Amino acid sequence: MQDSGLKLFIMGKSKLQSREEPVVDNTVTITNNRTGQQADFDIIDPTVGLSSIDVRQLSSKLGLFTYDPGFHATASCKSDITYIDGDAGILRYRGYPIEQLADHSNYMEVSYLLMYGELPDDSQYQNFIGSIKNHTIVHESLMQFITGFHNDAHPMAIMVGVVGALSAFYHDSLDITNPEHRELSAHRLLAKMPTIAALSFRHANGHPPIYPCNDLGYIENFLNMMFSYPTESYQVSRVAARAMELIFILHADHEQNASTSTVRLASSSGANPFACIAAGIASLWGPAHGGANEAVIRMLEEIKDPSEISKFIDRAKDKNDSYRLMGFGHRIYKNHDPRATIIRRACNELLQELDTINQPLFEIAKELERIALEDEYFIERNLYPNVDFYSGIILKALEMPLNMFTVVFTMARTVGWISQWAEMMTDQDQRIGRPRQLYMGIEKRDYVAMDKRD
Ligand code: CMC
To answer: Quick check: is 289 catalytic?
Structure first.
């Protein structure tokens, strides 16, 4: 049985440490000018970045809530995992700059780093890879879930359903109070995600399923399950594997984005990790988040010809049109997206290596980027191409089917979700997520019988 490899899993308990309590050496005084009431609130300092006001007692002290739709100004948790400075264009995993990880590391090592907080030594690395390989296969009955979907199902729809269904198969790792269960679930999720992703694609295309091959690395194995056939051997190209590895590293985590916050909120009720990650996948699917890489290619295909670009730019600038340039702008990065800087270079290198440089879609992409970057509208609003602008182009160049783009993002982000989830499980401050609201509806009225309604 595949999971009997658990006994080889020698890392033991998760190394997630309880962090040092942050320094609190200052307060802010808030005055309610309406009532004259005043109260002090602690300012909590992080290791680096903006400090936060601890408003947990705001309603009890001043009878007020905070109003912050979209959480623009709210730190929803303390975290040791990923640091972003949007103004300076900085992204670090566990303190390591993304540029260094992209140049020197690989996705499995980055995954270990995110999950355990440190870069692994050789034996930790080998044990980790060994454990992940031991869990790559999925239960045969789970395959029936996949074949039960209609063949035109979007692979993301299959991912949401099938990843959630994992909780029906792995009862032996669902006790979230048990660190060993948590670790086992985490490894299972990381290991099985490429298998489920590739199976969903193969089903949609009527291709026979390809089982994982544990002789291959994580990325190569995914590409093999996507593109090989039982009838002929498939050689994973080094260029393709490296480009894909880079996409995985750059998408591995991004602190409290919409899907990660969804995972945390779902988990806050004590729900099992498979269900919570399925919730994260649902959130990632949206075009404003992980769906953007797919939307970029659809946009370029719609533009069709460089001479049409200005029409689309005009639409994006028109206040009365909800149209946006896909792959442009970011909620946090208002200077540049450091992932985009890295991936842009890789994208150019890849296009040259693959000799796709003259393909019309890539010409349109480069021209669109050039025009937008010189346009006052985009300059004033700090709208730069983001990571998904280039990752979409790379995936297209690698002949990844369009509806698999967001699935690739999903696979890459899985380790971020499970690291954030595992961190939350040991965080003493965490409570069930239960935001409040500003009720703006009718205060109270009496029920009117149907025949008496106007
Ligand atoms: N095209 C045209 N105008 C835009 C765009 C765009 N892509 N993005 C923002 N704007 C404008 C927007 O209309 C607004 O203009 P004004 O001030 O005149 O009303 C201004 O810029 C600020 O927009 P916002 O909606 O307040 O910005 P936000 O930080 O809430 O949104 C975003 C960030 C990523 C949702 C948005 O830029 C967007 O929809 N981009 C396109 C989708 C996309 O590429 N998403 C991938 C994000 S990166 C991957 C990830 O981390 O998930």
So the answer is: yes
